[in-house]
Design goal:
2 copies of one chain form a homodimer. The first copy, chain A, has 138 residues and is of the alpha+beta class. Chain A contains 3 helices and 8 strands; from the N terminus they run E-H-E-E-E-H-E-H-E-E-E. Chain A has a single domain, classed as 2,3-Dihydroxybiphenyl 1,2-Dioxygenase, domain 1, CATH 3.10.180.10. An 8-stranded mixed beta sheet of chain A has the order 2-3-4-1-5-8-7-6. The mean pLDDT of chain A is 96.
């Protein structure tokens, strides 16, 4: 039987902005939502906050500095933009194997995100030019 | 009291692809999902299909021809990419007024989408460079 990459849900939509505080203030006031505390990840070199809509969260990312891997995106899109889609899975190691089997060229082996949950990314070239994060439920 | 743009949920994440059939075949086989029938909208000059994840749908769009407003995006991103976020609201006319009041420069007055539901878009320049569709629940 052919394997599939079984997902629970789309966990988040990630966007990149040049100024996190400004973006949060703007979206909070427009949508009447309260953003999460800002998380600073020195390992991933990003600042992150979440806006929780009823069914999904918007992950808002600002690179910490010019060395951040996310900074490349900001150089290409100085005003920011949509960055990736995060899919939640039950078993990250199984999902990694399935992704390899499906020839989706995972960019690297699962690493722990700022929230402690393991995650990996699929090669966008294998996914119709979309960047997908595969994120463990726990 | 300051008005907010009250949303029910994020209705969809929209992506643009150069070849809808190819994209559907690819995503269906990877995620084990069945895409909706392909809808051809001659007024909007697009072909659309949906992939339903448990909490949100992925709207997959291909321009019908080079006159399609979506074609500009494809010229800039020949392999496709993330295009917009669709927010569901209860009252589209009230949302339109609120958007004007919040200085979000709605691009045009609500028009009926291919599904018959009225919708409008906010000016990305007023939304941190993100394109938001505001879509009526009914």
């Amino acid at each position: 039987m052919k394997k599939i990459l079984k997902t629970n849900k789309i966990d988040h939509i990630a966007i990149v902005v040049p100024d996190l505080r400004l973006a949060l203030k703007h979206y909070e006031s427009i949508f009447g939502l309260k953003a999460s505390e800002v998380i600073i990840s020195t390992s991933q070199k990003v600042k992150i906050s979440y806006l929780n809509f009823s069914n999904i969260q918007l992950e808002i990312i600002q690179p910490l500095d010019s060395d951040s891997p996310i900074n490349k995106f900001l150089i290409k899109n100085p005003s920011g933009g949509l960055h990736h889609i995060g899919l939640e899975v039950d078993d990250i190691n199984e999902s990694y194997k399935v992704s390899e089997g499906l020839n989706l060229n995972p960019i690297e082996k699962p690493i722990n995100g700022h929230h402690g949950k393991p995650l990996f990314f699929l090669n966008p070239k294998k996914m119709m030019n979309l960047l997908f994060e595969i994120l463990s439920k726990k």
